[in-house]
Design goal:
3-stranded antiparallel beta sheet; 8-stranded parallel beta barrel; 12 helices; alpha/beta; globular; 371 residues; binds ligand 9MR
């Protein structure tokens, strides 16, 4: 029997399938039913939601998603703040939250230049450590974190944002100390720690042809060494005038052609004037009211255009459902999106699949199973 959901205006509660409640219940079409057999559908969730402080967010995640990713609680700064010191609290609760609901739980992220625990690349003299020491630290970090969730985490963003838009390697501490080898090493260590976990490379601005070419080479290189890589995560932070959808699709196809799967891992679309097309969180701009034109709600024409662009992306994923295995929004509802604070702090954004009242955005309705 399909689960029944008690409908209360503005709130959805999981209800019992009893005769008494039958008249007051109706089955609700869900996103996970809509895309069943095509790809997983989900979102990034934060610790507020896991801790029960966002009950409406919890309702939509529990009802509509079959996969979740940790928005912040697994980043090295948080989970491994000092050498040999691990803070598992939020990550444990996050993993349990997903497993309790039968979801595919995704770990984010093992190797990232940003939110990197400050101790990680430095010696007692404050300078970068040697390559040997860095390898050991990388190995310990990955073995400890992946090992703790062995058999529980479905897949890991192993390396995040390693390549710049011009296709060259980002000069991160990992790169400066270990050169390009930090990527194969990270994949090797992650696979050693959990041979069954899927392993991903994840990055933004994936429509860039130069970036695409480097990632194709990188995937081929990892595979030629016999290392496991399951998918490329195309973060998919978008706006009203970017990315070029044709180039985005070319990247999606090029990645698929290498033999790995493709995931939209951090999907959102700004509805506001474009200030920055990437997702590099250190690139910020000062507030100015012109950049925040819709504090009281999206005008109808902008909403229509936004929904049409989102529908175009979802249709692209469906057209490539043979290679797209997960579509994941970077958040739950508009009120909690990082885009309200970036690249301009204090804007009112509308980038996600659910609005501030936790209603599904209009473009999604066409995909829902008919009631
Ligand atoms: O959404 C995340 C935000 O809450 C954090 O402050 C920020 C820094 O840790 O990271 C955001 O998530 C980023 C993700 O981890 C990697 N890709 C870009 C995302 C947006 O900055």
């Amino acid at each position: 029997m399909k689960p029944q959901y008690l409908l209360i205006p503005g709130l959805l509660l999981l209800g019992a399938c009893s005769a008494q409640t039958k008249e007051a219940t109706a089955s609700v079409p869900t996103l996970k039913d809509a895309f069943d057999g095509k790809f997983l559908i989900g979102g990034a969730i934060n610790t507020r939601l896991v801790d029960g402080l966002d009950p409406k967010g919890d309702s939509i995640v529990s009802l509509h998603f079959n996969t979740i990713v940790a928005e912040n609680c697994m980043k090295s700064e948080k989970i491994n703040p000092a050498e040999g010191v691990y803070d598992w609290d939020d990550a444990d609760k996050f993993v349990k939250y997903g497993l309790d609901r039968g979801m595919k739980v995704i770990g984010h992220t093992l190797v990232w230049h940003s939110q990197l625990a400050p101790w990680f690349p430095l010696g007692a003299d404050g300078k970068y450590v040697s390559a040997d020491v860095m390898k050991e630290r990388l190995r310990n970090h990955i073995h400890t974190v992946v090992g703790r969730y062995k058999g529980k985490i479905h897949g890991w963003d192993v390396v995040n944002e390693a390549i710049l838009d011009d296709g060259t390697y980002r000069k991160s501490p990992f790169y400066e100390i270990l050169g390009e080898e930090f990527i194969p090493l990270a994949f090797q260590y992650a696979h050693e720690a959990d041979p069954d976990a899927e392993l991903y490379l994840n990055d933004y601005s994936m429509a860039s042809p130069a970036k695409r070419d480097t990632y194709v080479k990188l995937i081929n290189d990892l595979r030629s060494r016999g290392l496991r890589i399951d998918a490329i995560g195309m973060q998919a932070h978008m706006g009203m005038d970017y990315p070029d959808f044709d180039e985005f699709e070319k990247s999606l196809v090029a990645f698929g052609d290498t033999g790995v799967k493709v995931m939209l891992t951090e999907w959102d679309m700004s509805a506001l004037p474009t200030v920055n097309t990437g997702a590099n969180i250190s690139d910020t701009t000062a507030y100015n009211a012109m950049l925040n034109p819709y504090p009281d709600g999206l005008p109808e024409n902008i909403s229509r255009e936004w929904n049409a662009r989102m529908e175009h992306v979802m249709d692209m994923c469906l057209a490539h459902a043979d290679i797209v295995t997960r579509v994941n929004a970077w958040g739950t509802d508009d009120s909690m999106s990082w885009k309200n604070g970036w690249p301009v702090a204090g804007r009112t954004e509308y980038p996600l699949l659910f609005d501030r009242n936790h209603n599904l955005k209009p473009f999604l309705k066409k995909y829902l199973p008919q009631e």
